[in-house]
Design goal:
Structural class: mainly alpha
Shape: elongated
Number of strands: 0
Radius of gyration: 14 Å
Distance between the termini: 17 Å
Helix content: over 70%
Number of domains: 1
Largest sheet: none
């Protein structure tokens, strides 16, 4: 497997997780009933989420080129969304932990690909 494909998958998961945590329901699932993110925190989560999704597109295009990179990206987003959906339903706190781990490993994979 190409390292950039792995980075794209991990960035997609992290981006989708950050976007989902900006929603009241998922934030309350992780931080307790009735908890809501502050408006500044919500904007920060959304910014990180969209950055992760766009960086995932860049990684997939870097791995496969413009001819099949966007197709790969759609598949990577679908797989990441399925994993995130299952984790948010059955283990919401583990979904957040996995998002942090995915972000760190994505940075390491990208650095390894650039070297």
């Amino acid at each position: 497997m190409n390292v950039l494909i792995l980075a794209g998958a991990l960035l997609a998961y992290g981006g989708l997780a950050a976007n989902s945590i900006s929603l009241d329901r998922h934030y309350a699932d992780i931080h307790g009933r009735g908890a809501e993110p502050a408006p500044r925190q919500r904007r920060l989560y959304r910014a990180f989420g969209w950055a992760g999704i766009l960086l995932s597109l860049a990684a997939c295009v870097g791995a496969q080129g413009w001819h099949t990179g966007p197709v790969l990206w759609c598949g990577v987003l679908t797989a990441a969304a399925i994993v995130l959906t299952l984790l948010l339903q059955y283990a919401p706190r583990k979904a957040l932990v996995l998002a942090w781990i995915a972000g760190a490993v994505a940075l390491l994979a990208t650095a390894a690909a650039l070297i």
